[in-house]
Amino acid sequence: MMRQYRTAKDANPGCLLFFRMGDFYELFFDDAVAAAAALDIALTRRGRHQGEDIPMCGVPVHAAESYLQRLIRKGFRVAVCEQIEEPVASRKRAGKTPVAREVVRVLTPGTLTEEALLDARHHNYLAALAEAGGAFGLAWLDMSTGEFHTQPVAAEALAAALARIDPGELLVADRLLARADLASVFEERAPTALPDARFDSVSARRRLCAQFAVAALDAFGGFDHAEIAAAGAALDYVALTQRGQMPRLAPPARLAAGAVMEIDAQTRRNLEIVEAISGGREGSLLGAIDMTLTGAGAREIAARLAAPLTAPAAIRARQDALAAFHDDADLREAVRAALRRCPDLARAVSRLTVGRGGPRDLAAVRDAIGCAGRLAPLLAADPPSPRAALSEAAAALDGHGALCQALTDALAPDLPLLARDGGFVAAGYDPALDELRVLRDDNRRLIAALQARYAEETGIASLKIRHNNVLGYFVEATVATAERLADNARFVHRQTIANARRFTTVELAGLERRLADAADRALARELEIFACLAAQVTAAAEPLAAAARRLAEIDVTAALAALAVERRHVRPVVDDGDGFEIVGGRHPVVELFLERDDGRPFIANDCDLGPDRRLWLVTGPNMAGKSTFLRQNALIAILAQIGAFVPAERAHIGVVDRLFSRVGAADDLARGRSTFMVEMVETAVILNQAGPRALVVLDEIGRGTATYDGLSIAWAALEHLHEVNRARALFATHFHELASLVGRLDALCCATMRVEEWGREIVFLHEVAPGAASQSYGIHVARLAGLPAAALARAEEVLETLETGGQSRALAALAEELPLFAAATPLPPPCGVCGLIEGVNPDELSPRAALDLLYRLSAASRGAGENG
Question: Is 717 left (phi over 0), alpha (psi -120 to 50) or beta?
Answer without folding.
Answer: alpha
